[in-house]
Write a structure and sequence with these properties.
EC number: 1.2.4.4
Cofactor: thiamine diphosphate
Protein name: 3-methyl-2-oxobutanoate dehydrogenase (2-methylpropanoyl-transferring)
CATH topology of the largest domain: Rossmann fold
Radius of gyration: 23 Å
Structural class: alpha/beta
Order of helices and strands: HHEHEHEHEHHEHEHEHEEEHEEHEHHEH
CATH architecture of the largest domain: 3-Layer(aba) Sandwich
Number of strands: 14
Pfam families: Transket_pyr, Transketolase_C
Shape: globular
Strand content: 15-25%
GO molecular function, one term: branched-chain 2-oxo acid dehydrogenase activity
């Protein structure tokens, strides 16, 4: 019976378009389905991001070297154009060269990794410091925590963020809690950095599309970081590797090759747990991090023209612990707040930001509208339909309209 059903379905799939008895419109066959999502020709909002012109990237050496929080000695240095994966590679190479206690390891790391972030590092620094591991996330994390406890600075790569869940016990109950458990002995996993590609890849991704950063934002003892640009990635990754806190470093994989900008060639760090105001504004505070910031900027440009408003855009950079002072000061000024992120809306970063705003007496009384969260739906990432799940320009644009009309 099962065999007959399969043959029947196969024959149906191969038939040309048929007409129904009640309509002259052909029934679409599987061969004519468009198995991806894109913008229609007349779209006004959800257009592809032009990374070559976006103001969120430093397209000249002058703008790169004028970046807030750059150390003084870097401001007079040279720059080089890099995309995100090249900047991460540069940061890893800098860390390995400057500190012999730094190790880099993970699945396929020795020959460059899936996204080429560790390319040529094994040849430059040797197989004892850059090496492949077995295909076991628990094993990678267990080894990394042990190495950190013994004074090393391990950089463990989880090949995709989706694969980190089997190692969650080690991250939560060992890496984050070791310093509290050990007490006066002083042992901790403070030199640990865990890198992982995350987020959607766009245009019909078939797998590896989760953004699980919200799961890490409820774990005291960890820092969770997500850069939006190559310049940020280098400075924040070096700061994470040298930090005495265990760090989760999440890399938006859609930006690996898409985002390119001028990056200082010097060794530099950017401060952790400090937000950056990308665009000042007066009427609405918009908070995000990573890839969604590009959609936020596109939505803001259109909303400001259509609604006559002024929107302040904040990049959290470190999403746990996040910069409450920067956010609260901005919301006290504007009276309205929108939080945008790819991960699920429930128990996400937006929920934590909204709760912190309403708990702060000085900020709560300044609100002119409820805090709005624009995020992924409370469902597993729907594979090739991820474009309909993650916040797009239209949803963010509509969020600005709603908070202004409240």
């Amino acid at each position: 019976m099962k065999s007959k059903c399969i043959h029947h379905l196969a024959r149906t799939a191969r038939r040309p378009a048929l007409l129904t008895r009640t309509s002259s419109v052909p029934i679409t066959t599987t061969s004519s389905l468009r198995l991806y999502s894109t913008h229609p020709p007349n779209a006004k909002l959800n257009l592809p991001v032009d990374y070559s012109t976006t103001p969120l990237l430093s397209h000249t050496s002058q703008t790169a070297l004028a970046t807030p929080d750059l150390p003084a000695h870097v401001r007079n240095s040279t720059t080089q154009k890099m995309n995100l994966f090249q900047a991460i590679n540069d940061a890893l190479s800098t860390a390995l060269a400057s500190d012999e206690s730094v190790l880099v390891f993970g699945e396929d790391v020795a020959f460059g990794g899936v996204f080429r972030c560790s390319m040529n590092l094994a040849e430059s620094y040797g197989a004892e410091r850059v090496f492949n591991t077995p295909l076991t996330e628990q094993g990678i994390m267990g080894f990394a925590i042990g190495a950190a406890a013994e004074g090393m600075r391990p950089v463990a790569e989880i090949q995709f963020a989706d694969y980190v869940f089997p190692a969650f016990d080690q991250i939560v109950n060992e890496a984050a809690k070791m310093r509290y458990r050990e007490g006066k002995t002083g042992r901790s996993a403070g030199g640990l950095t865990v890198r992982m590609p995350c987020g959607g890849v766009g245009h019909g991704a078939l797998y590896h599309s989760q953004s699980p950063e919200s799961l890490f934002t409820h774990i005291p003892g960890l820092r969770v970081i997500m850069p939006r640009s190559p310049l940020q990635a280098k400075g924040l990754l070096l700061a994470a590797i040298r930090s005495n806190d265990p760090c989760i470093f999440m890399e938006p994989k859609i930006l690996y090759r898409a985002a390119a900008e001028q990056v200082p060639t010097e060794d530099y760090e950017l401060p952790l747990s400090k937000a950056e105001i990308l665009k000042p504004g007066e009427h609405v505070t918009m908070i995000s991090y990573g890839q969604p910031l590009y959609n936020c900027m596109a939505a803001i440009e259109r909303a400001e023209k259509d609604f006559g408003v002024s929107v302040e855009l904040i990049d959290l950079r470190t999403i746990y612990p996040w910069d409450k002072e920067c956010v609260l000061n901005s919301v006290r000024k504007t009276g309205r707040c929108i939080v945008v992120h790819e991960s699920m809306v429930n128990a996400g970063v937006g929920a934590e930001v909204a709760a912190a705003i309403q708990e702060d007496e000085k900020t709560f009384v300044r609100l002119e509208a409820p805090v709005t969260r624009i995020a992924g739906w409370s469902i597993p990432t729907p594979l090739m339909f991820e474009k309909f799940n993650f916040p797009d320009v239209a949803r963010i644009y509509d969020g600005v309209r709603r908070v202004m009309e409240y």
